[in-house]
Write a structure and sequence with these properties.
With about 230 residues, the protein is mostly helical. The protein contains 11 helices and 6 strands. A 3-stranded parallel β-sheet has the order 1-2-3. α4 runs parallel beside α5. The longest helix has 14 residues. This is DUS-like FMN-binding domain-containing protein. It holds the Pfam family Dus. It comes from Goodea atripinnis.
Length: about 230
């Protein structure tokens, strides 16, 4: 809900284990809250069954093949996998440009470009998208049809709207959404920790990270950064 306010075209749930989703009513109630689902599954039937459950209520289902296991050391294996996925009828393919062993190493843009050139469906690049300028540079290097971001959007949900850092309006939008949706405090607080990391000092982060209630967080934000109304004064 938050990133859609800031020019994000498509967003998925966090990865949901399809087996647990099918087995547990509690899991379905807690995890199925949006209209784009992302599943992880070990077998085709489990994925298909989970997709059928959400199909009447969702716009799309994403199959997560294991972040960040999307590039093989033998690139031919990855190309073959993507071509098989295309033959199976997927609408598009997102490629995280790292191998299984890599975490924060540079993205293999050449591999993403090879995959883009090897299939006809749209290809989305994932990895190291932290600022809007990274979108353009990734497109130039790979020719992909779009980009996906995870950690970049955690740090700045307004990134795709062109903001270098999380704007105050976005922070208060998150407060409003969390209160409206009844977001658990741990999740509410944790996202704000990400969002404030670039714009706060280490002493400020130490104080903020120790807060333990929604009211104390709101008081801190008002006293430290002001309200949205203050922007116009």
């Amino acid at each position: 809900s938050l990133v859609r306010k800031y020019n994000c075209d498509i967003c998925f749930t966090p990865m949901i284990v399809a087996t647990d989703f099918l087995r547990s009513v509690k899991a379905r109630d807690s995890e199925f809250t949006t209209n784009e689902l992302q599943f992880a599954a070990h077998d085709a039937q489990t994925l298909a069954d989970a997709a059928c459950v959400v199909a009447p209520f969702s716009d799309g289902v994403d199959l997560n093949c294991g972040c960040p296991q999307r590039i093989h050391n033998n690139l031919r294996r990855t190309v073959d996998l993507c071509q098989k996925a295309e033959s199976a009828g997927v609408s598009w393919i997102t490629v995280h440009g790292r191998t299984t062993e890599e975490r924060h190493q540079p993205v293999h843009y050449d591999a993403i470009k090879t995959i883009k050139d090897s299939v006809s469906v749209p290809v989305i690049a994932n990895g190291d998208i932290k600022y809007l300028r990274d979108v353009e540079s990734t497109h130039q290097l790979t020719g992909v049809d779009g980009v996906m971001a995870a950690r970049g959007l955690l740090a700045n949900p307004a990134m795709f709207a062109g903001y270098e850092d999380t704007p105050l309006q976005c922070i208060w939008d998150w407060v409003d959404i969390s209160i409206e949706q009844g977001t658990p405090f741990t999740c509410f607080h944790h996202h704000l920790i990400y969002m404030l990391e670039r714009v706060s000092s280490q002493p400020e982060r130490k104080v903020f990270n120790s807060l333990s209630s929604t009211s104390s967080v709101i008081d801190y934000l008002q006293n430290t950064y002001g309200t949205v109304q203050d922007l116009g004064t």
